[in-house]
Amino acid sequence: MEDNSLKILGSCAALPSLKMNQSAYALNMNSKTFLIDCGENTQQSLRHYCVNHSRMNHIFISHLHGDHCFGLIGLISTLDLLGRRSDITIHSHKGLEEAMRPQLDFFCNYLHFKVLFETFSPFTSEIIYENDKIEVSSIPLKHSIPTSGFLFREKPHRRHLRADKAKFYNIPIEQYKFILNGDDYVTPDGMIVPNSNLTLPPSPQKSFAYLSDTAYNEKVVDKIKGVDILFHESTFLEKDRVRAKQTFHSTASDAAKIASLAEAKKLVIGHFSARYRDRKSFLEEAKPIFENTFLGNDGNEFTF
Q1: Which residues lie closer than 8 Å to 181 by C-beta, 6 or more apart?
Q2: 105 classed as catalytic
Q3: Which whole-number Å values give the CA distances from 217 to 209, 212, 222, in the listed order?
Q4: From CA 147, how far away is CA 164, in angstroms rounded?
Q5: pTM of the predicted model, to two decimals?
Q6: Catalytic residue among 3, 37, 67, 254
Q7: Which of 61, 76, 68 is nearest to 107 (CA)?
Q8: CATH homologous superfamily, domain 5-157+203-303
Q9: Cα angle: 155, vertex 156, 160; to 5 degrees
Q10: What's the mean pLDDT in 134-163?
Protein backbone atom coordinates (compact mmCIF):
# COMPACT_ATOMS: atom_id res chain seq x y z
CA MET A 1 0.00 0.00 0.00
CA GLU A 2 1.07 3.55 -0.71
CA ASP A 3 1.21 6.06 2.12
CA ASN A 4 -2.02 8.05 2.51
CA SER A 5 -4.18 5.46 0.80
CA LEU A 6 -7.29 3.37 1.36
CA LYS A 7 -7.39 -0.31 0.37
CA ILE A 8 -10.78 -2.01 0.06
CA LEU A 9 -10.62 -5.47 1.67
CA GLY A 10 -14.34 -6.22 1.66
CA SER A 11 -17.10 -4.37 -0.18
CA CYS A 12 -20.24 -6.45 0.48
CA ALA A 13 -23.00 -5.79 2.97
CA ALA A 14 -24.36 -8.51 5.28
CA LEU A 15 -24.25 -11.26 2.67
CA PRO A 16 -20.86 -11.84 1.00
CA SER A 17 -20.68 -12.86 -2.63
CA LEU A 18 -18.51 -15.56 -4.20
CA LYS A 19 -15.85 -13.02 -5.14
CA MET A 20 -16.37 -10.16 -2.65
CA ASN A 21 -15.95 -10.15 1.12
CA GLN A 22 -17.69 -8.39 3.96
CA SER A 23 -16.75 -4.97 5.34
CA ALA A 24 -13.04 -4.35 5.95
CA TYR A 25 -10.80 -1.44 4.98
CA ALA A 26 -7.09 -0.79 5.44
CA LEU A 27 -6.09 2.85 5.79
CA ASN A 28 -2.45 3.85 5.53
CA MET A 29 -1.57 7.29 6.94
CA ASN A 30 1.85 8.57 7.94
CA SER A 31 3.38 5.10 7.68
CA LYS A 32 0.78 3.59 10.04
CA THR A 33 -1.86 1.08 8.96
CA PHE A 34 -5.31 1.17 10.54
CA LEU A 35 -7.93 -1.54 10.02
CA ILE A 36 -11.52 -0.30 9.88
CA ASP A 37 -14.12 -3.02 10.49
CA CYS A 38 -13.30 -6.69 10.22
CA GLY A 39 -15.86 -8.88 8.51
CA GLU A 40 -15.32 -12.57 7.86
CA ASN A 41 -12.30 -13.40 5.69
CA THR A 42 -10.49 -10.15 6.49
CA GLN A 43 -7.34 -12.05 7.39
CA GLN A 44 -7.26 -13.60 3.92
CA SER A 45 -7.86 -10.26 2.21
CA LEU A 46 -5.01 -8.66 4.15
CA ARG A 47 -2.61 -11.28 2.85
CA HIS A 48 -4.08 -11.43 -0.65
CA TYR A 49 -3.72 -7.68 -1.12
CA CYS A 50 -0.28 -7.55 0.56
CA VAL A 51 -1.22 -5.26 3.46
CA ASN A 52 1.65 -5.05 5.95
CA HIS A 53 0.14 -6.21 9.24
CA SER A 54 3.28 -5.39 11.24
CA ARG A 55 2.32 -1.68 11.12
CA MET A 56 -1.31 -2.42 12.01
CA ASN A 57 -1.69 -1.79 15.75
CA HIS A 58 -5.21 -0.34 15.91
CA ILE A 59 -8.55 -1.73 14.70
CA PHE A 60 -11.69 0.43 14.62
CA ILE A 61 -15.09 -1.31 14.71
CA SER A 62 -18.04 0.85 13.64
CA HIS A 63 -20.79 -1.23 15.26
CA LEU A 64 -21.60 -4.67 16.60
CA HIS A 65 -23.19 -6.32 13.60
CA GLY A 66 -21.49 -9.55 12.60
CA ASP A 67 -20.56 -8.50 9.07
CA HIS A 68 -18.32 -5.83 10.62
CA CYS A 69 -16.60 -7.86 13.35
CA PHE A 70 -16.91 -11.64 12.84
CA GLY A 71 -13.41 -11.74 11.34
CA LEU A 72 -11.63 -10.54 14.48
CA ILE A 73 -10.99 -13.84 16.26
CA GLY A 74 -9.56 -15.50 13.14
CA LEU A 75 -7.40 -12.49 12.35
CA ILE A 76 -5.96 -12.36 15.87
CA SER A 77 -5.14 -16.07 15.84
CA THR A 78 -3.46 -15.80 12.44
CA LEU A 79 -1.40 -12.76 13.43
CA ASP A 80 0.08 -14.80 16.26
CA LEU A 81 0.91 -17.65 13.88
CA LEU A 82 2.63 -15.14 11.61
CA GLY A 83 4.91 -14.12 14.48
CA ARG A 84 3.28 -10.98 15.77
CA ARG A 85 4.63 -9.74 19.11
CA SER A 86 3.23 -6.18 19.29
CA ASP A 87 0.03 -5.51 21.22
CA ILE A 88 -3.08 -4.65 19.23
CA THR A 89 -5.88 -2.30 20.34
CA ILE A 90 -9.49 -2.68 19.25
CA HIS A 91 -11.57 0.51 19.45
CA SER A 92 -15.28 -0.26 19.71
CA HIS A 93 -18.52 0.30 21.55
CA LYS A 94 -19.16 -1.40 24.86
CA GLY A 95 -20.07 -5.06 24.46
CA LEU A 96 -17.45 -6.27 22.02
CA GLU A 97 -14.91 -7.22 24.68
CA GLU A 98 -17.56 -9.10 26.67
CA ALA A 99 -18.41 -11.08 23.53
CA MET A 100 -14.83 -11.73 22.46
CA ARG A 101 -12.98 -12.31 25.72
CA PRO A 102 -14.33 -15.88 26.19
CA GLN A 103 -13.30 -16.70 22.60
CA LEU A 104 -9.84 -15.27 23.16
CA ASP A 105 -9.45 -17.18 26.42
CA PHE A 106 -10.61 -20.43 24.80
CA PHE A 107 -9.03 -20.29 21.34
CA CYS A 108 -6.14 -17.83 21.78
CA ASN A 109 -4.81 -18.32 25.30
CA TYR A 110 -1.34 -18.84 23.83
CA LEU A 111 -1.00 -15.37 22.25
CA HIS A 112 2.42 -13.70 22.31
CA PHE A 113 0.81 -10.24 22.36
CA LYS A 114 -2.01 -8.52 24.23
CA VAL A 115 -5.40 -7.73 22.73
CA LEU A 116 -6.57 -4.49 24.32
CA PHE A 117 -10.05 -3.00 24.09
CA GLU A 118 -10.80 0.72 24.27
CA THR A 119 -14.47 1.66 24.32
CA PHE A 120 -16.10 4.88 23.21
CA SER A 121 -19.65 6.19 23.17
CA PRO A 122 -21.65 5.85 19.92
CA PHE A 123 -23.75 8.86 20.89
CA THR A 124 -21.10 11.61 20.91
CA SER A 125 -18.31 12.79 18.66
CA GLU A 126 -14.94 12.62 20.39
CA ILE A 127 -11.27 11.97 19.78
CA ILE A 128 -10.81 8.24 20.36
CA TYR A 129 -7.18 7.88 19.28
CA GLU A 130 -4.22 10.11 18.53
CA ASN A 131 -0.50 9.97 18.02
CA ASP A 132 1.97 12.75 17.27
CA LYS A 133 0.67 13.13 13.69
CA ILE A 134 -2.96 11.91 13.50
CA GLU A 135 -6.25 12.27 15.36
CA VAL A 136 -9.18 9.88 14.97
CA SER A 137 -12.63 11.14 15.91
CA SER A 138 -15.86 9.19 16.19
CA ILE A 139 -19.02 10.34 14.38
CA PRO A 140 -22.49 9.19 15.53
CA LEU A 141 -24.41 7.63 12.63
CA LYS A 142 -28.04 6.69 12.03
CA HIS A 143 -28.51 2.94 11.92
CA SER A 144 -30.66 0.17 13.42
CA ILE A 145 -28.20 -0.18 16.33
CA PRO A 146 -25.70 2.34 17.74
CA THR A 147 -23.10 2.94 15.03
CA SER A 148 -20.12 5.25 14.61
CA GLY A 149 -18.23 6.61 11.68
CA PHE A 150 -14.61 7.72 11.90
CA LEU A 151 -12.68 10.79 10.81
CA PHE A 152 -8.93 10.38 10.41
CA ARG A 153 -7.17 13.74 10.16
CA GLU A 154 -3.55 14.79 10.26
CA LYS A 155 -2.61 17.27 12.96
CA PRO A 156 -1.57 20.71 11.70
CA HIS A 157 1.83 20.70 10.03
CA ARG A 158 4.60 23.12 10.83
CA ARG A 159 5.54 25.80 8.33
CA HIS A 160 8.29 25.11 5.79
CA LEU A 161 11.66 26.80 6.29
CA ARG A 162 12.98 28.70 3.28
CA ALA A 163 16.52 27.42 2.82
CA ASP A 164 17.56 30.53 0.85
CA LYS A 165 16.51 32.84 3.69
CA ALA A 166 18.14 30.67 6.34
CA LYS A 167 21.39 30.88 4.39
CA PHE A 168 21.01 34.61 3.70
CA TYR A 169 20.59 35.46 7.39
CA ASN A 170 23.08 32.80 8.47
CA ILE A 171 20.55 31.35 10.91
CA PRO A 172 22.01 28.75 13.32
CA ILE A 173 20.52 25.26 12.97
CA GLU A 174 19.40 25.25 16.60
CA GLN A 175 17.03 28.16 15.79
CA TYR A 176 15.20 26.25 13.05
CA LYS A 177 12.73 24.53 15.38
CA PHE A 178 11.62 27.86 16.86
CA ILE A 179 11.15 29.41 13.44
CA LEU A 180 9.19 26.38 12.21
CA ASN A 181 6.92 26.80 15.25
CA GLY A 182 6.15 30.38 14.20
CA ASP A 183 8.78 32.52 15.94
CA ASP A 184 10.47 35.48 14.28
CA TYR A 185 14.26 35.52 14.09
CA VAL A 186 16.40 38.16 15.79
CA THR A 187 19.79 38.66 14.16
CA PRO A 188 22.94 39.18 16.28
CA ASP A 189 22.70 42.94 15.66
CA GLY A 190 19.08 43.05 16.89
CA MET A 191 17.15 43.16 13.60
CA ILE A 192 13.85 41.27 13.69
CA VAL A 193 13.15 39.11 10.64
CA PRO A 194 9.41 38.27 10.45
CA ASN A 195 8.53 34.60 10.35
CA SER A 196 6.54 35.17 7.16
CA ASN A 197 9.79 36.10 5.40
CA LEU A 198 11.53 32.93 6.55
CA THR A 199 8.90 30.27 5.99
CA LEU A 200 6.26 29.04 3.58
CA PRO A 201 2.72 27.94 4.58
CA PRO A 202 2.35 24.40 5.97
CA SER A 203 1.17 21.53 3.80
CA PRO A 204 -2.59 20.88 3.89
CA GLN A 205 -3.79 18.31 6.44
CA LYS A 206 -4.74 14.98 4.88
CA SER A 207 -8.08 13.51 5.96
CA PHE A 208 -10.32 10.48 5.46
CA ALA A 209 -13.89 9.88 6.66
CA TYR A 210 -15.65 6.53 6.98
CA LEU A 211 -19.45 6.45 7.20
CA SER A 212 -20.94 2.95 7.34
CA ASP A 213 -23.59 1.76 8.18
CA THR A 214 -26.00 4.66 8.12
CA ALA A 215 -29.21 6.06 6.75
CA TYR A 216 -29.06 9.46 5.06
CA ASN A 217 -27.97 11.91 7.75
CA GLU A 218 -27.01 15.53 7.07
CA LYS A 219 -25.85 15.97 10.68
CA VAL A 220 -22.49 14.46 9.70
CA VAL A 221 -21.73 17.11 7.06
CA ASP A 222 -20.08 19.72 9.29
CA LYS A 223 -17.82 17.11 10.88
CA ILE A 224 -16.37 15.93 7.54
CA LYS A 225 -16.24 19.23 5.65
CA GLY A 226 -13.58 19.27 2.94
CA VAL A 227 -12.39 15.71 3.57
CA ASP A 228 -9.94 14.30 1.01
CA ILE A 229 -11.69 10.93 0.70
CA LEU A 230 -15.15 10.12 1.95
CA PHE A 231 -16.15 6.48 2.15
CA HIS A 232 -19.94 6.35 2.39
CA GLU A 233 -22.01 3.20 2.32
CA SER A 234 -24.44 2.79 -0.56
CA THR A 235 -26.11 -0.50 0.17
CA PHE A 236 -29.06 0.12 -2.16
CA LEU A 237 -30.12 1.86 -5.34
CA GLU A 238 -32.99 4.35 -5.49
CA LYS A 239 -35.40 1.72 -6.83
CA ASP A 240 -35.07 -0.01 -3.42
CA ARG A 241 -35.38 3.13 -1.30
CA VAL A 242 -38.19 1.59 0.77
CA ARG A 243 -35.88 -1.25 1.77
CA ALA A 244 -33.07 1.22 2.49
CA LYS A 245 -35.34 3.15 4.84
CA GLN A 246 -36.52 0.00 6.61
CA THR A 247 -32.94 -1.17 7.27
CA PHE A 248 -31.41 2.26 8.01
CA HIS A 249 -29.07 2.17 5.02
CA SER A 250 -28.25 4.61 2.23
CA THR A 251 -28.61 4.63 -1.53
CA ALA A 252 -25.89 5.67 -3.96
CA SER A 253 -27.61 9.02 -4.47
CA ASP A 254 -27.74 9.52 -0.68
CA ALA A 255 -23.97 9.04 -0.49
CA ALA A 256 -23.43 11.46 -3.37
CA LYS A 257 -25.60 14.12 -1.72
CA ILE A 258 -23.60 13.90 1.50
CA ALA A 259 -20.32 14.14 -0.44
CA SER A 260 -21.58 17.19 -2.30
CA LEU A 261 -22.79 18.94 0.86
CA ALA A 262 -19.52 18.16 2.63
CA GLU A 263 -17.47 19.40 -0.35
CA ALA A 264 -15.44 16.19 -0.26
CA LYS A 265 -12.66 15.87 -2.80
CA LYS A 266 -13.39 12.21 -3.61
CA LEU A 267 -16.24 9.82 -2.80
CA VAL A 268 -15.80 6.06 -2.56
CA ILE A 269 -19.01 4.05 -2.26
CA GLY A 270 -19.34 0.49 -1.01
CA HIS A 271 -21.09 -1.93 1.36
CA PHE A 272 -23.17 -3.11 -1.59
CA SER A 273 -26.14 -5.42 -1.20
CA ALA A 274 -25.56 -8.83 -2.82
CA ARG A 275 -28.85 -8.45 -4.71
CA TYR A 276 -27.11 -6.30 -7.33
CA ARG A 277 -24.93 -8.06 -9.90
CA ASP A 278 -24.01 -4.95 -11.89
CA ARG A 279 -22.38 -2.36 -9.67
CA LYS A 280 -22.05 0.15 -12.51
CA SER A 281 -25.61 1.18 -11.70
CA PHE A 282 -24.33 2.69 -8.45
CA LEU A 283 -22.00 5.00 -10.36
CA GLU A 284 -24.75 5.90 -12.81
CA GLU A 285 -26.87 6.99 -9.87
CA ALA A 286 -24.18 8.84 -7.91
CA LYS A 287 -22.11 10.63 -10.56
CA PRO A 288 -24.81 13.09 -11.74
CA ILE A 289 -24.89 14.34 -8.14
CA PHE A 290 -21.20 14.05 -7.30
CA GLU A 291 -18.94 13.55 -10.30
CA ASN A 292 -15.81 12.37 -8.47
CA THR A 293 -17.38 9.11 -7.28
CA PHE A 294 -15.67 5.70 -7.41
CA LEU A 295 -16.73 2.13 -6.76
CA GLY A 296 -15.07 0.62 -3.70
CA ASN A 297 -14.68 -2.94 -4.97
CA ASP A 298 -12.46 -5.49 -3.23
CA GLY A 299 -8.81 -4.82 -3.97
CA ASN A 300 -9.25 -1.22 -5.15
CA GLU A 301 -6.86 1.34 -3.71
CA PHE A 302 -7.41 5.09 -3.49
CA THR A 303 -4.71 7.63 -2.68
CA PHE A 304 -5.10 11.11 -1.22
Answers
A1: 158
A2: no
A3: 14, 11, 11
A4: 51
A5: 0.92
A6: 67
A7: 76
A8: Ribonuclease Z/Hydroxyacylglutathione hydrolase-like (3.60.15.10)
A9: 135
A10: 97
For residue 3, the model assigns a pLDDT of: 86
Q: What is the DSSP secondary structure assignment for residue 49, as one 8-state letter? A: T
Q: How many CB atoms lie within 10 A of CB 8?
A: 25
3-state secondary structure of 147: coil
What is the gyration radius of the CA atoms in the chain, in angstroms? Answer: 22
Residue 118 has pLDDT above 90, yes or no: yes
C-beta neighbour count of 79 within 10 angstroms: 23
Cβ pair 89, 66 in contact under 8 A: no
Cα–Cα distance, 269 to 267 (Å, whole number): 6
3-state secondary structure 52-90: CHHHEEEEECCCCCHHHCCCHHHHHHHHHHCCCCCCEEE
Q: What is the dihedral of CA 281, 300, 244, 153, to 10 degrees?
A: -130
pLDDT, tens digit, 9 for 90 and up, residues 23-33: 999 999 999 99
Q: Phi and psi dihedrals of 167, rounded to 5?
A: -70, -40
Check residue 1 and give its pLDDT: 79
- Taking only the tens place, the pLDDT of each residue in 181-229 is 999 999 999 999 999 999 999 999 999 999 999 999 999 999 999 999 9
User: What distance in Å separates the CA atoms of residue 256 and residue 175, rounded to the nearest whole number?
Assistant: 48
The 10 Å Cβ neighbour count of residue 74 is 16
Domain coordinates of the chain in residue numbers?
Answer: 5-157+203-303, 160-200
